[in-house]
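Good morning,

Attaching, inline, the backbone tokens for the sequence recovery test we're adding to the shared suite. The designed sequence is right after.
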């Protein structure tokens, strides 16, 4: 659908003249001459075939047609100005983009965002959750949380904490001893790449010097956060990151009574090499402080 509209300059001249009841005052607002305002309004009247003003001595008065057009045009221009101002103001705010895995974002970052907002109300955080390794420069990412062995050449790297994994479950399952693990479904998620240091059930039972159950049902997930949620819902026992279930353990929604606790990879904070903006530095320092609370500082 093609809109047939008169020139915007004519609409602006009409709206200003109607608001001021004066061609002269409209001209002062628009930084043109009164003759130019009169010409624009005459062109609008010719375009529409309507008389919009009654010209009186030292005054103009809206006709019935002009009185109907004015509030519609006024409200539309006000809405345009308000939206543009809001968008411009939003763009002027500082923003820091943090990239992390889906599970780390959902289970570790998001519960702590309110704390960052309280400390830095002038900085907006944009969380980019993906299990794919992103190119910081190309993706516009300021900070990336990487989980692995490293090294990460070409970046400034600060270790956050070493992850530890242990069996966690809803206490309503009434698992009293390690032997009871074989009586409940085991929950696991699929690691994206095979590595001997991946915290698997086979590795945990070996570390506990116990035979791995052969008949125990398994509930498998492709995403770590879904496996944790299944454990919270009482659907089985998950071998989960203690850092990612910290809140559930504190609230008693999950328990982790059994050793050993497997050490896995480290989380690292990556930024582009070189000098950082004050906003990126503030976000990085905040992440470091939260990592000290969440787990062992390396």
């Amino acid at each position: 659908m093609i809109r047939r509209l008169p020139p915007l300059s004519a609409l602006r001249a009409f709206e200003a003249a109607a608001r001021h009841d004066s061609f002269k005052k409209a001209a002062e607002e628009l930084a043109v001459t009164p003759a130019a305002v009169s010409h624009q309004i005459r062109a609008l009247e010719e375009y529409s075939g309507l008389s919009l003003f009654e010209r009186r001595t030292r005054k103009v008065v809206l006709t019935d047609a002009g009185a109907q057009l004015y509030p519609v045009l006024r409200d539309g221009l006000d809405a345009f100005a308000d939206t543009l101002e809001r968008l411009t103001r939003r763009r002027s705010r500082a923003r820091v983009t943090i990239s992390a895995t889906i599970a780390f974002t959902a289970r570790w970052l998001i519960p702590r965002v309110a704390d960052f907002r309280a400390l830095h109300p002038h900085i907006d955080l944009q969380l980019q959750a993906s299990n794919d390794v992103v190119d910081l420069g190309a993706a516009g990412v300021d900070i990336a949380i990487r989980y692995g062995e490293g090294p990460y050449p070409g970046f400034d790297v600060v270790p956050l904490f070493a992850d530890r994994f242990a069996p966690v479950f809803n206490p309503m399952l009434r698992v009293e001893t390690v032997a009871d693990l074989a009586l409940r479904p085991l929950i696991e998620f699929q690691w994206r790449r095979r590595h001997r240091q991946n915290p698997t059930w086979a590795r945990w039972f070996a570390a506990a010097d116990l035979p791995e159950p052969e008949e125990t049902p398994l509930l498998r997930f492709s995403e770590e956060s879904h496996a944790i949620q299944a454990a919270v819902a009482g659907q089985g026992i998950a071998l989960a990151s203690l850092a990612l279930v910290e809140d559930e353990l504190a609230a008693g929604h999950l328990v982790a009574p059994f050793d050993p606790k497997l050490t896995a990879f480290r989380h690292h904070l990556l930024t582009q090499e070189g000098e950082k903006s004050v906003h990126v530095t503030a976000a990085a320092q905040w992440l470091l402080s939260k990592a000290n609370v969440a787990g062992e500082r390396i």
